[in-house]
Structure formats: C-alpha cells, structure tokens
Amino acid sequence: MKNTFIIVLGVLALLCSGCAAPCPYWRTNYSLAQKESVEKGKPLLVLITAPDCSTCESNWCRIFSRKEFLEKVSKDCIPLLLNCPYENPTLQCSTFRDMYDAGPSPSLVLIEGSGTKIATVPFPYQDTEKCLEAIRSLLNK
To answer: 108: domain CATH number?
Structure first.
C-alpha cells in the first residue's frame, strides 16, 4: 500500500510539472520513424528509457521534453522514443538493445535510416546544450 501511494504521488508530481506530458516531436513507432528517416535523409535519434528509471525521468524533465531541445534536434534528426521496461521488455526493445549495443537506460543512439549505427551519445547529459553539442559532434564526424 505504501509503495502504491508513493508511485501515485510521483505520477501526480510529474503530471503537475508537465514532464509526463506527451510530446509531439518524439515518434514512438520504430518502423514509421525509420521510413521518415529514409525519406527526409535524416538519422534517427533514439532515446531508450525505462518507466522505472529515475535517471530517465530526471533527464526527460531536464532535457528531452524541453521544446528548445526538440526544435533544435528535429532540424537534424528524427527523434524516436522507445520506452523499454527492465522487467519483461518487449521483443522490439530487447532486439534493439542487442543490435545497437545500447547500454542501460537512458541511452541515446544515432542510427542511419538504413539501420546502420552512427554512434551512442555519451552519458551523462548534463544539460540541453551539452547534449546538443554531443549530438552535433557525432553527426559531423
């Protein structure tokens, strides 16, 4: 009962802060995002999170849900969000993590539309600008 109460309070806090709000920039369907990536000639920026990861939640609120981050990153990439729980992950999540050697959540991976991995964006993501700098640096290699 105590754990349920804490979880409910956490969800309410996120909803009130606006961090849990869905974001129109992030795609959630890998196949459609990959198709868009090929059509627009932009790589995918895949954010792998887990619903039970406090670091994922913190980074979502500080960086990945921010309009300024998403507007800038969307100029060069197709943002894709994969929510992959640690317990009982979907086959897509397991396959993706194995195929692209994605580390623990949160992970940011740059992938060509063809499916070729460009790089993993180094963690930690201190703030919006440092994260954008890291992405730009990897795209310019």
So the answer is: 3.40.30.10
